[in-house]
Records
---
Amino acid sequence: MLLPELPEPPRIPGPLTELLAVDRLASLDRLEVHYIPGDRIVRLLRETKDVVPTACGGQLGVLKPKIGGRVADPDRIYRVVTTDRARVTFLSSHLKTAHSPYLLGRSQEAVRGLLGEHITFRGAVLRTLRDLRDRNIKETPEQLYARLTRASVATKMPQWLFRISRLSVRLENFQGAENSVFATVPETLATSPSSLNLGVDTDLSLAYNANDIWWDARLRSNFNRLSVTGLDDQELADDIRLSSSFTYAGWSFQPLPWATKALRLMPFSELLYDSEITPVQGAERQSDLLFQVGLGAKRFGTVRTLRFGGFVLQDLSKVERSIEYGGRLEMTTLHVLGPKIRFTSGLDATLYGSTPDDDASDLRYKVRLEGRLALPLARYLDISLFGQGFAFGGRVPENDVHGLSYTVGFALDVRTAMVVP
């Protein structure tokens, strides 16, 4: 909340009445709410340190301002409440540059009551005081004034967050002429067989975040199938991963004396179900259940996720096989290159140990690496240039070689994050 200067409450003998408190506030100041993207609110909070007389809920003038005790999330939309007078007199230029410049992005609207009337700052304060009185909360107007005008909130309140990191769907259907009389025509569209290309790339999560406990449930899938008339279907990508992790943030430590102070590790555990959406023709559906324990890092710098640890894995398609074990490393980064370009990267590396049941279907290691350069087209829509690589190596003498595959392309991605009430 960014507000005009608030007068001190009058000093009188005895309790301060509601009427005396609200009489010090301008009677015609109307409340407004401005919708600021997370990748722009940082600049707004930095630049308004010497401009805004009164602020609460967020830190002003610091390099990495916190909002409600949390670092600003670039994927979220934040609501900044102010008054029409504050906007016109000293916040106008700052808010104009902070509003979303893209389609589907809301900029501002008046705060209205149940009957559609404009709510004034004075009316909102009076309503708050009366709500406190009706709920028998033992808080004086002076204490309420001090609480509402604090510069920031240091203690994080528990929060549920639903995040769409990526949601892409691609469908291409080509209907060929399928007439042999045109077989010698030097035109691809006249001679190519009919085909269907279906692609889906999804990363959704629901997270609970409190001071000491972090929990999340996550769905990741990647599917791309090419169907050509007269040929067997070919799956270019086929993976679905359901996971749930628990992190105890109440116990964290700095791993090395010379490491950056922002790097703090904490214990976590994760349960991951990794499978195919459809089985490979002539084979059983690959399906693994993995349990991992290790250490994870709090967000620092451009690193959003950093986890490493050991795991045990059961192949659910061949339950008679021995339980596998190994180590795993995950890391994701986010670079916001100005207000318009985002670069994200992801690494998921797994190293497997030897078991008595090893055969040519087993890998010694596999590494997934992805980089994505995104340019927003609308508030919730990006056009992205991406590259995905997969490196792997066999575990037994028959397949003791290294392999590499990669994909490059463009995509339209839906991306957003929202607090669940």
---
Amino acid sequence: MIASMAPNIAPVLFLLVLATSTFAQTNAQVYAPASGPAKGSLVVIGGGSVGKAIFDRFADLAGGYDAPIIFIPTAGDPDSYDEHTVEVSVLKKAGFSNITLLHTRDHKLADTEQFAAPIKKTRGVWIGGGRQWRLVDSYLNTRTHRELEALLDRGGVIAGSSAGASIQASYMVRGAREGNTVMMAKGYEEGFGFLRPVAVDQHLLTRKRVNDLVSVIAAHPELLGIGIDEATAIEVHGAMFQVVGESKVAIYDINTPGADGKPYYFLSAGEKFDLKTRRKLN
């Protein structure tokens, strides 16, 4: 009887080896290295009050406080903006003296060369807070979006706070029109993709959101989750970022849970993180 079973062993072993190999390949794809822009820099801010350390980093990367920068307020509620907009006033108070507003609710207009042209004349763009879906409706996959990518390619910097932070990731959280408590909203899950494969949440500790990214990473285990508290930012250069500001950044990675068994761990100001290896550097 044993002899009669022997011819069937080889095919079974072959199938087991094939399944193991396929699983390993799947894991290699799911847990791919994360990355920022190959050139240029990002300043991804968790919302709230922005301190001098963050403004200084953006200014240094944009060419100084007197350098021309663009402010995109489109995530906010109003349909129109002018130089008296609150966030413009905040940027001016911080020391920026050459600010151009770029705003539209018209996706077709955002896809024109004329509208996007001002981005070609700057090294720094700041994307304001509000609701992420408005940025998607206006700019995703338009000429404006491509000019932002071109800005990074020539060594520029893109900063974004709150909604302007989440939109910079490849997977966008809190995009639902119905409200910002919905983490995964069909039709509003694609961000600008400057960080990939990454999801960025904001107002992390201030609004008690520390557990909110857990469900996103469980549903999309290929993603690296980055939660950023208010008055805090990550400064991204290629495959590395450093924490800047007053509070903490949380890392959500299905490969590397926190030491205490929680599905996240924290980084503090000054600490660095390797996106390629998904590991803390210091």
---
Amino acid sequence: MLKLNSVLTAGAVTLAGFQAPAQKPAALKAATPNIIIILMDDMGYGDIGTTGANQYDTPNLDRLASQGMQFTWFYSPQAVSSASRAGLLTGCYPNRVGITGALMPWSTIGINSDETTIAEVLKTRGYHTAAFGKWHVGHQREFLPLQHGFDEYYGLPYSNDMWPVDFDGVPIHLRDTTSRLMRYPVLPLIEGNEKIGEITDLSGQDKLTAEYTRRAVEFIERHRKEPFFLYLPHSMVHVPLGVSEKFRGKSRQGLYGDVMMEVDWSVGEIVKAVDKNGLAKKTLIIFTSDNGPWLNFGNHAGTTGGLREGKGTTWEGGQRVPCIMRWTGVIPAGEICNRLASSIDFLPTVAAITGAKLPGKKIDGVNILPLMLGDKNTTPRHELYYYYKTNSLEAVQRDYWKLVLPHRNNQSYRYVDPGKDGWPGPYGSETIYSPELYDLRRDPGEWYDVAALYPEKVKELQDLAGEARRDLGDEITGDPGTGRRQPGTIKE
């Protein structure tokens, strides 16, 4: 907690002392910088060195932060995989586009072809596009990346634990033929639109990070003379953990630390490829995570750095995630941004940078380019909705005030035993019976409910919740919402 508060305080000092640039940097006039988004899976706010990680080192991520800007109030649009990725790609709250929770290998929905992705926005400006890694917004052909603006794809169509193998690497049919894992097919590897192989054991998972990285570096080299968009959604650090022999046993924190060291190496390789090809001033690099750590996996999960709970909850540990951006000569080096932002803001920001048109349908993201330029006199985003499950509005935030609404939280981790040897412990449960108010500026850990002290703020945020329900609905209160759209469905 001390380390987290130190980072937040440092941001406040920077805010007071920095003056906005008088004019936009010259690099912005080119309007077609390369865009690289590196998305981690289940990495917590506290999992990198600059936010307090220990027993392993992340020198490349720490260096990236020193060369660019670290966002300390940055949020995933939902605390679970498919929903979070749908939000990042479309600039919308996930429930607006009909993707909630985590899609399964038997799911019959995916990202709708009527939605516009970042890749499709950038294709209108002549970009070459590629995705290497975990997709997870639909695994059937019509939902895969090549049908949504990407020229190249290689990776897993969904999470790396969606296979008939237990977390210790034992095929489930050898242990328990009644397990839910028996429903899963073998984990497919996809290139383009076709399955080119299968992962049947943990040794296959050990190769994923290095292979995604190799392909990403090769893509940068191949397109160094033309604008490109590289989307690198890693399968790690989601369980089951996989790491190459080069990094196995290298950390002081066991397998999770080893995986983090390999992920940091991967970031270093991407940055090295950019710099070696003279692209530092032409490339925006964004590093973030899809949601917080899956804490019931004990020492096979990361840390929130003192934030409350983790993945699968709408507490801060579930949705506040690390975010670092570097664009040499454009983003001020060594800056900390403590303004509210989210990955749903990437699409409109990229459109603003490149001069591309926004999608014709309503989106929820805002242009955060002024924050990236170091402008401390602007606040593009004031509000955030915290939705979970099918369509449950569990909290709303305005600036630093967060109102937690009555709901049952079936994945509560605060007092859960992580389980023997780091394997899954039992799920807890927690019910919020009346609205709870948190001042995140003073209490980022959400320990102290101050609703009784600020009834006017409770009323203000309840009104905001009403706006959310009218637009996006709320299954808890029965509001249908008028602004929700349907996901894509399999064609018969």
---
Amino acid sequence: MLTCLKEMKESALISKGVSLISDNSLVLNGKSVPILSGEVQFFRMDPQVWEPSLEHVKKLGLPIVSTYLSWRRFSKDPDQVDLSGESDPRLNVPRFLDMCKKAQLYVTVKPGPWICGEEINGGYPDWLIDQPALQVMDAQDQPVKGYQYPFQSPIPSYFHPDYQFHVRRWLEAVDKVIKPYCYPDGPIILLQLDNEPSFAFHDRMFESDYNPVIARRGGLYSSWLKEKYVSITTLNDCYESAFTEFAEITPPRKLELMKGKTMVRLMDWVEFKEDILASHVASIRNYHLQNGIDEVLFTINYNLHPQLATPNNWHSLECASGMGGYDYYPNLPMDVENFIEVVQAINYSREVNRVAWSPEIMCGIWSFEGNEHAIDRLESCEY
């Protein structure tokens, strides 16, 4: 049986990196370092421009370099991971980190497993998403796909055992390479656990995740209800139902508000989704800790939501990681409505998070198929 979500989310395991936070800065080697970074996605670039790019980050006064590790690029099949550049010099992770260290720049590493990043499949390997049994399903038992190109591919279900197996192997390979470069001996100070956990932005009530691992009779959702209510009698009193055991109960699949206690059942499904997203982040945290990555500060970012914190429960996600922040993607130039949204998010973050911090602030996007623009122009995202 899968590790229970409550134990995973509330595990006492936590990185020592949490102690690096002081007010709105990090204290590194006795010095206060602002949490400001510039993105350099080296695996997309000719290695000849890595060093000049880092020099530009330095000239901008930014103390930290941020970069993804795209699982899809580094792993062409389940049994092969190239993080040393043997198959492609753009994949030489140690060489890039050596350059960061030489430039005296700290590093934020974001190895996913999902990175978004305008990558095909959001960084998931082709061989992973091609396995139907692993896929996220909607309330009609249809595979859920990413919201637009280049993410319009199936999404793996976070707690399918096969997905967990492959994630563990990917992170073992990553951590073996990055461990010598982690703080305090190396430049890596922040490590992001996944990216905007949300099933590739399909986290509304009936959009996901109805994979059988979760939604079948006796599946993960049934087990979660048993943990919450303990007694089937207590649940029946709350639901006005007559279930004989928890294994009978499956998630709601449509909006039904004709009965008095129906809302309780719907809100349980929402609460479960908050829990599973936080537990997913915690599972990745635990893999890194088991691999000996325990000095850096783990982070997580929250995706854009009109309601801000459901099912991306900001407090739960931060507790499952170490430091959380909201990604700001207003339409540019910013109008009054966008400005109010940003102020609202900042104020809410100040109440529920350790630091009012944004892991991503939109200032432009590179060209990719379907979104080309001139090389000398920086255009805002429209999505």
